[in-house]
Amino acid sequence: MKLTILKHWLNEAMQHVSKAINGKNSLPILSGIKMDVTAQGVTLTASDIDTTIQATIPAATEDGAQIVTVDEPGSVVLPAKLLVEMIKKLPKEEVHIETEVGFAALLKSGKTKINMVGMDPEEFPAVPALTEERSFTIAGSDIRDMIRETVFAVSTQETSPILTGVLWQLEPSKLTLLATDRHRLAQTAAEVGDGDNALIKFVVSGKMLTELNKVIADDSGDVEITATQSQVLFKVGRTRLYCRILDGTYPDTSKIIPTAFKSELVVSTKAINAAIDRAFLLAREEKTNIVRLETGEDNAVTVSSNSSGLGSVSEQLEAESITGEPVRISFNSKYMLDVLKVIDSEQLRIGFTGPMSPIIIKPVDGKDSLYLILPYRTTN
Amino acid sequence: MKLTILKHWLNEAMQHVSKAINGKNSLPILSGIKMDVTAQGVTLTASDIDTTIQATIPAATEDGAQIVTVDEPGSVVLPAKLLVEMIKKLPKEEVHIETEVGFAALLKSGKTKINMVGMDPEEFPAVPALTEERSFTIAGSDIRDMIRETVFAVSTQETSPILTGVLWQLEPSKLTLLATDRHRLAQTAAEVGDGDNALIKFVVSGKMLTELNKVIADDSGDVEITATQSQVLFKVGRTRLYCRILDGTYPDTSKIIPTAFKSELVVSTKAINAAIDRAFLLAREEKTNIVRLETGEDNAVTVSSNSSGLGSVSEQLEAESITGEPVRISFNSKYMLDVLKVIDSEQLRIGFTGPMSPIIIKPVDGKDSLYLILPYRTTN
């Protein structure tokens, strides 16, 4: 293997694939990045078994400008951490790489020479084969929003592995993402394609979706999503993320989401966020993060919390409208702040069906999202 | 105590004094900020015993614009962490504060009301009394540079408490700061005053100087420094930092600094920094961070390092000049990078007196600084 490649192309591809690497992995080969060089260009692959990321660098740009000059095709696995940091710091834009005996590689740039201990590319796990494919396409910016709007609600408890993932459901013309950790739930949906999609349903790790969101750039264009029985492939430009589908059955959450409310509140997202943010400063001193919300006369909403050691806070804000029965409810303010952070709508609607029933939060801008928080049982 | 104060003045003063608070302190009163209100304005004080920071907020600006309206003078101690974060997030610029029974305080801003559990101001330790004062004045930007140029070299080992501090020495017209952890040394000096200063010598905690540097803003003007037997006071604008002088005798380092060299090297700071930075990526994998430097023909300098598991790196750069005997030396690259980070000079001079003698680094821009690194004994 022998080639010359432009640093910034190599650096960008390496930044993407290195996100698959899990520092805690015990297989030495997975601490490396595999480099495959052909006349068409360079392919980089990194993996932690569950997730594999692959990025290709073409030999030339669409305008015909040379990116890679291949003197000799070949493959090698090089230490990822060293490679990623070293490439960034090389003195010149041109980087020369060639393999020597025993998987060793020589990198040259300007007057810098690096000998790297490499590993056998044959030992690197193969990229998952995708059979019985079902695919759909969605704009990169849409998928990025949808992941952001749901992924915060996944469980961090390894005791319910299925809940550490986000459920994806594709119906003929609609894609829904849903996450829950049993205390709260986040769900968002968007129109997809021309309405003749096959039904697709899978659960993928929330952590991996957070990494996927880092790979999707503003100019990434469409993301192509291909699902099989055990794997999902996300194609973003020249980068491919292969992700293992989580085993198990995702719980049916449709029955716990109330559709009719005893009371409804429409408020400014910014105003209620600021009030709960201040109440949280006291609430967090108690482990439960409890904040109380109460409605009063003339669209008044009172948000309050207290901490035995520090004191108490009480806030009033004016709702746009309050309908139905008066509300007096307690909830985990951290969960509410997580929701308010991802709602872009200027106003939001909160629905209540009683002090022990789920609280439902929805943006009023017409976006098809829904957030659920279980209230907290308090004595007062 | 009863007053109305503008949020951004209170916030700024609080950010400054809160830097004295040590979360690990076991005295509950020291988790608070003391607030003293008089007709002249508000004084805030925070302390961890060793360091006390005090900031004053005048009742009005120099132009006569009202900052504080005092309805009733008084004092109280309020929980620092809550106060600092809450003030920042208050909805309005006007903040009303009044004490109630039992040191409780009520804060109001817009429709936000906070009841805080306060503490007895009488229990708060008094600000150190300064007797037998000796003072000098130096520009804020100069003192900030001098601290930055030395503080990185203090020891982090609590077993030599005196070395966790920076030595300050004022001679008639010159101030010198010096820090060492026995493996390296940093020293910088500047002209001060009109040459009839009294001799002053003291050692203060490096950590506290790092905090002092955060208080000194670009427009802080002069810093007045007053020393007694046991305390130093730094006056920066309306903020005062009182700092305990470290007990013990600072070691005499004058004899270990060579003044004549067997070889001298003049190189570009940027070029040698980049080369050592890359060599460090491999060197850090071995605990000693060892990088080798070797001079050759035609002003060539070779920087190299290796890691048994990863490989090796070798770099060539061209020195501006090399005089004296050929050099072949090993050192801790982390220590060298720390030095290169604080040298603003475009070029630097490195002096060698043998493979086991201290390496001396100096900027060539005429600044009176000197850095020393002990070389590392290697077998090859």
UniProtKB/TrEMBL annotation, chains A, B:
Transmembrane feature ranges: none
Gene Ontology biological-process annotations: DNA strand elongation involved in DNA replication
Subunit details: Forms a ring-shaped head-to-tail homodimer around DNA.
UniProt similarity note: Belongs to the beta sliding clamp family.
Superkingdom to which the source organism belongs: Bacteria
Residue intervals of the DNA polymerase III beta sliding clamp C-terminal domain: 255-377
Pfam families referenced in this protein's UniProt entry, alphabetically: DNA_pol3_beta, DNA_pol3_beta_2, DNA_pol3_beta_3
Keyword Nucleus: no
InterPro entries named in the record: DNA_clamp_sf, DNA_polIII_beta, DNA_polIII_beta_C, DNA_polIII_beta_cen, DNA_polIII_beta_N
Domain DNA polymerase III beta sliding clamp N-terminal intervals: 1-128
DNA polymerase III beta sliding clamp central domain location: 138-252
Location in or out of the cell: Cytoplasm
Function (record text): Confers DNA tethering and processivity to DNA polymerases and other proteins. Acts as a clamp, forming a ring around DNA (a reaction catalyzed by the clamp-loading complex) which diffuses in an ATP-independent manner freely and bidirectionally along dsDNA. Initially characterized for its ability to contact the catalytic subunit of DNA polymerase III (Pol III), a complex, multichain enzyme responsible for most of the replicative synthesis in bacteria; Pol III exhibits 3'-5' exonuclease proofreading activity.
Alphabetical list of CDD domains matching this protein: beta_clamp
Gene3D superfamilies linked: 3.70.10.10, DNA Polymerase III, subunit A, domain 2 (3.10.150.10)
GO MF annotation: an example: 3'-5' exonuclease activity
PANTHER family: BETA SLIDING CLAMP, DNA POLYMERASE III SUBUNIT BETA
GO cellular component: cytoplasm; DNA polymerase III complex
NCBIfam families, alphabetized: dnan
Keywords: Cytoplasm, DNA replication, DNA-binding, DNA-directed DNA polymerase, Nucleotidyltransferase, Transferase
Protein known as: Beta sliding clamp
